[in-house]
Amino acid sequence: MNNEWLYRFKRRIVLGIIGILAVSMAATMLIVITVLRTNLLDINARNARLLGSSVTAALKNTMILRSPEMIQSTIEEIGSGSNIARIFIFDKNGRIAFSTDKGEIGTTITNLDGLTCKACHARVKPLARSFTFVLKSDKGDVNRNVTVIPNEPSCHACHPPSNRINGKLVIDYSLDPTYGMIGAIEAVILISGAFCLLIMVPFVS
To answer: Cα 9 from chain centroid?
Structure first.
């Protein structure tokens, strides 16, 4: 009788320990997954911002040369990168002047997503000259980087000095590779956790 009671008592202790370990493991995995996801998305956003700065610098000299063909060629070449979903430039009136999608060149933007415009126009104090945000769509989520193209003195040969900006450069940096990496990491963590729990099962029987 005493042995049976002692066995049940020990089993409860083991079950309690396993339960605590399971909860601790689940909480740890959740924290790790959340932190990794946040960090990977931040890295993607930084890459999008760096790309925006690089493209702006590359296009600056090309624009001064007044060569639309060279500007379009540069955008197409940069846009051929595997993680770049789309690049386009539109002027202050919303007309798309250059784009990796040639079919939209010359068209006027009438329904651009709110953040791309409102981030500057709906604020008393506009955002920085370059900003990035996640844009969700049926074609896949992207980190959209928007860089304002200021009307500098070197631009006045083509653009009136009264204009504060000449347009905006928009780069959509695909999140698909990042989501794929996050999914793979989550799967490894979950499988590892399940395997650890299976190892504990014999101690309960």
So the answer is: 52
Q: Quick count: other Cβ atoms within 10 Å of Cβ 128?
A: 10
- The per-residue pLDDT for range 87-118, each reduced to its tens digit, is 999 888 888 989 998 888 888 876 655 556 65
pTM for the complete prediction?
A: 0.72
CA distances from 100 to 40, 73, 105 (A): 26, 9, 9
Triad 129, 133, 138: Cα angle to 5°: 135
Contact 140, 174 (CB under 8 A): yes
As a whole number of angstroms, the distance between CA 137 and CA 31 comes to: 27
Nearest-CA neighbor of 49 among 143, 140, 163?
143
Structure tokens, 175: 């999140």
How many angstroms separate the CA atoms of 57 and 129, rounded? Answer: 14
Cβ atoms 53, 147 nearer than 8 A: yes
CB 142 within 8 A of CB 85: yes
Retrieve residue 97's tokens. 């002047």
